[in-house]
Amino acid sequence: MGQTALDHTADYGPEEAAMQAYLRDGEKRAFALGNRGPIRFTADGALHPEIVEAYWRCGFYVFEDVLKADELADIERDLRDILDRLPVERGAPVDAKGRPALAVDCTAPNLLWSKPLGDPFGGTTLANGRHQVKMFEPKAAADAPKEIVYLILGSLQFSEAALRVYGHPQLLAVAAAINGPDFAPFNEALFIKEPGRGASVAWHQDGVTHWDSPDWDEGAHGFNFMAQLYGCTPANGVWVVPGSHKLGKIDIKSVVAKAGSERLPDAVPMVCKPGDVCITNRQTLHGSFANTSKDWRVTVNFGFHRRKSVLGVKGGGVHNKAAVYDAERIHERAKLIGYAIDARRQRFPAETPYVYRLHAEADETYRWDAAARASIKDYNLLDLSI
Known about the structure:
Strand order of the largest sheet: 1-2-10-7-12-5-4-3
Strand content: 15-25%
Shape: globular
Largest sheet: 8 strands, mixed
Number of strands: 14
Structural class: alpha+beta
Helix content: 25-40%
Distance between the termini: 34 Å
């Protein structure tokens, strides 16, 4: 896995040459943006202004070398266990070894399936129809399975390593810098782009709720962190149109029609090494192509909102049932932040744990133990989806 990809040969057929040229050109544009480097803070603890400027200018930033080798090894162990426990097919109660399959006892949505190299959302009404145009679907190899799991929601209940990434002190400090110290959770997922099989994600903007709000601005729908286990390339990574988070709701059909294909000329790929973590504004126009390359991409994905963006707001109903998010629900969902911080403290005792202001002000202490582990089953029923 990672550097030893399986040989699931696939390409873009008649579009292969144009696609390869596009990938090369996009990578050059990406490295010219000036929006990558280590997480840096000023002497008084503020996120470095050069990072803040580049994030708001581009809509994303690549933080380099955030996760070290021991943490990546932890994530990979959990990933192997998760892949081993997937149902043998959609709806099956058991895995390939006859054991109860991952998430079989969950109520919340967890496993998203696609045909290999498919685009399950593009051009449909799913997720409020935000994936307006279907991506090109290359032909998969003859030995490919009928369907693959490409996205796992509620992932913190299946991977303690992912939970510990969620509690990373520097990343949480970045969240406070961007969304305020009272920042609120969004949701978490594992994206799995298997070589020669991984599905595409059609061009879209993530926000649903606030586009027509009188106080809408370029940060209204929060952001996602995307921690990379194996790194990502132009072929298997997420592409972003820089600055598009400032534009409001975009007519994606028109943008694609003007481009003449899904290869949007202004888009750039997030190119990462293992252990890099991207922060991406959810309002950016972004998407990813079917993974015809020989490289895995596994992304530990988790997002945060401004508290004012969710408190008293009716959610969009994309990740769970539409509901008005009151203070009690936000507090309950934010318990995962407390558990994550303590889980990380236990694994990395030399680090200084992050202090989440709302928990500290309420004098609340969270302990990651067997009882906590049992309590977070189906936690993503409470995702704060705007």
